[in-house]
Design goal:
single chain, about 140 residues, alpha/beta, 6-stranded mixed β-sheet, two-stranded parallel sheet, disordered N terminus
Amino acid sequence: MQVSTPVERTLTLQDYLQLTRFVSQQQPHAGAEALQDMLDQSDLVSLPEVPATLVTLHTHVLLEDPSGRSYQLTLCWPQEARPAEGLVSVLSPVGAALLGLHVGSVARWRTPGGEQGSARILAVLGRPETKVGGRA
């Protein structure tokens, strides 16, 4: 997993702790190291302080690709991922690129095949901890 890490990334303390635990249980590899680097460089907020514009685990987001096509994704754990249904693993290049960004930010990633991708975050449509948009 290669992620173009933006300068500013914010994670909930809960996401940070869960992801740190997950990374520590993995065999050492470049993807785990990249994720750990992102975790180490992130600002942390408690759940009551989470801005409505922040992409966290289980956030349902509206994105726009460079061609102007909009689409929706939900960040989830690897075992919950169903990409064809819009459920993308937080450990995938797209998921890792989105995590911790705000509405208006552009997420950038590189696929395992070396292709570059990007998408602008247009809206947070739902997030469990805040019930944004009524989705749980």
